[in-house]
Amino acid sequence: MDLKDKLVNSFLVFENQVDIDSNIHDIRTEAIKNFETKGFPTKKDEDWKYTSLKSVLKHDYSVFPKHENAIEYSDVKKYFLHDIDTYKIVFIDGKYSSHLSQTTHDGIDVCLMSSALTKPKYKIIVDNYFNKIAEKSSVASLNTAFSKEGAYIHIPKNKVVARPIEIIHFSTGNEAALLLQPRNLIVVDENSHVQIIERHQSLTENPVLTNSVTEIFANKRAIVDYYKVQNDNQKASLIDNTFVDQKRESLASVHTFSFGGKLTRNNLNFYQNGEHLDSTMKGITIIGDKQHVDHNTLVHHIEPNCESHQDYKGIFNDNSTGVFNGKVLVEKDAQKTNAFQSNNNILTSDKATINSKPQLEIFADDVKCSHGCTIGQLDESALFYMKQRGIPEKEAKALLMYAFSNNVLSSVKIPELKQRITKLIANKLGVNIGFDL
Amino acid sequence: MLKIKNLHANIDGKSILKGINLEIKAGEVHAIMGPNGAGKSTLASVIAGKEEYEVTEGEIVLENEDIAELAPEERAHKGVFLSFQYPVEIPGVSVTNFIKTAINETRKAKGLEDMPANVMLKMIKEKAALLEIDRKFLSRSLNEGFSGGEKKRNEIFQLAMLEPKLAILDETDSGLDIDALRIVSNGVNKLKSKDNAVVVITHYQRLLDYIVPDFVHVLHDGKIVKTGDASLALELEAKGYDWIKGEVNA
Fold first, then answer.
1. B160 touching A, CB under 8 A?
2. Which of A379, A382, A433 sits opposite B101 (nearest CB)?
3. Domain range holding B44?
């Protein structure tokens, strides 16, 4: 039985586990039907032309992990921003770990999706926001059908959340192969600020596939900064589906740092539902071996006087492959739009590949839209210059690559996170030099 | 310190250096002059180890070791410094971080610990003052948007920081106004000692008014065709290169 059939068959069992009278029962049922009709995407789908899920879908994934697994904090401390205070929502093999987490209901809600979906006090928010902007794509529908657990964050108006919130998913390898489908809902009300970091980490070499959906709502004048750290091991794959809805004068940013994993697909959509707002999507991808990272972005400019900024840097080593598919859609009413998109890539090996495809669809006539895409190698004359000053080839290359991606790193607002990412980049480039640029 | 024996070098199969012989002792200043296309910059690049050039014959001996096969960074670690005619812009890497990395990588190659941060800072301050470079300049991206004069001053600043044995200045005077020329030459003169040597590559006499050479060599068609003292440079300035060419062809 292939994975699709297995999932469709599992749905009834799943529905019996959760509350069948739940008001999202209908949403789940519709979603599984949608997934059943569409099936997993293949390379025949235009949006998946360069990314094949075949090798990822061949495993016999457990859909419902049987064991409760514990992890000692000391073993996984390095995956947290442990040098500063943070709120933490931590899952082990898809199950909430109260032991590793630090949630709160003190003026804000930083807690669990499973509570939000079942407890009456969250009903209004869930009714207003849950599954309102998630795409009806096959993978997002699959997640919706099995949506049960994940992070639930609600920041009421006029709150500046001082501590970043970390959402971390660990998988322990207790199952031979594991499918995880976290579902996150983040609602940030008027004038509130929040910073969120998301990470998926597999602790063994057993295959893991994560199909995650996150819905983010930035209401009037809210500021939401979301950081995704993707540095998982070679057997872990991730399909990330993140949807951001913005209202008037809000600022929302998503930074994606893709350094690991077997296959990573980032579907990132921004919907601009208000004037004078600003959307930022940035990413650094540094991969090697046979790794694959695909960024599929959409900015939907619906209202006038808004901005969007996209800046994706990619460094592809060995046999790695990358995809950037960035769509900017400017509606007729979205006059005075400023939309910028840039995708720069370095291929360090003649076996590495990048497919970069900017798509601009503009229906308004008074807009400023630009896009630029470059694919190149490291500058030989710069390398010689650096080597002449005593910097060895490997370090010289690392410094150039770091400098190349520095634009994206410089907009990370949490200093400890920036440091951490800098270290990850140095590790990834195999050098031990401080990049305090 | 440096002995170049019968050096031949090609680029893309084209022969540029056709048998260079040159001996430079510690404490000396040598000027290499010559018309465009004579091979002056090629000689500098070949000594520094630029990979595009192929040494087909001869030796480059630095303190009794043939360095002709070494990587550019290994030559740098042994004390070879080239001040570039066209310093490369490296966006995103600050002057300070670049020089820190260069110094610490050189120390690492010699089995030394990183230079302590306070020592480094003091040295940067001192050498920046010598080249009349202000602090803001040091945090800018290396050579990016620098004026011609700033680029050259930055080269000599790095020279001062790295304290090489052999400094080759490739047309350091080009693009310099008279004030920058004075600052740069002053910097070079202060760094000169009995233990190091300087090779000045230039078209013009004017730099040699400031950095006075012990020897002047004229390079023509890949060979040194004439060697003299500082007065040779004045003679070239007065007569141009044609008389040398005439002498060679005669």
1. no
2. A433
3. 2-249
CB of B84 less than 8 A from some CB of A: yes
Token pair recorded at residue B46: 């070949």
Q: Which of B76, B90, B97 sits opposite A388 (nearest CB)?
A: B76
> Could you tell me if residue A310 is inside a domain?
yes
Please report the ipTM that was assigned to this predicted complex. 0.96
Asked, for residue A273, whether it belongs to a domain, the answer is yes
- This prediction has a pTM of 0.88
Each residue of A167-184: pLDDT tens digit? 999 999 888 899 999 999
For chain B positions 193-222, those within 8 Å of chain A (CB to CB) are none
CATH code (residue B244):
3.40.50.300
pLDDT in tens, A275-322: 999 999 999 999 999 999 999 999 999 999 999 999 999 999 999 999
Residue A213 belongs to a domain: yes
In a domain, A260, yes or no: yes
Q: Is A385 on the interface with B (CB under 8 A)?
A: yes
DSSP states along A65-108: --------HHHHGGGS-TTS--EEEEEETTEE-TTT-B-B-SSS
Strand B90-94 and strand B141-142: the pairing is antiparallel
B157 Cβ under 8 Å from any chain A Cβ: no
Q: Which residue intervals of B70-177 are DSSP H helices? A: 72-77, 95-109, 117-130, 135-138, 148-162
Residue B53 CA to residue B56 CA, distance in Å, equals 9
Q: Is pLDDT of B203 > 90?
A: no
Question: Which tokens belong to B243?
Answer: 């008389």
Q: Does the distance separating the beta carbons of A437 and B93 come in below 8 Å?
A: yes
**Contact partners, residue A218, CB within 8 Å, separation at least 6:** A188, A224, A244, A245, A246, A247, A250, A251, A252, A277
Those residues with Cβ within 8 angstroms of residue B203's Cβ, 6 or more apart along the chain or in another chain: B33, B36, B171, B174
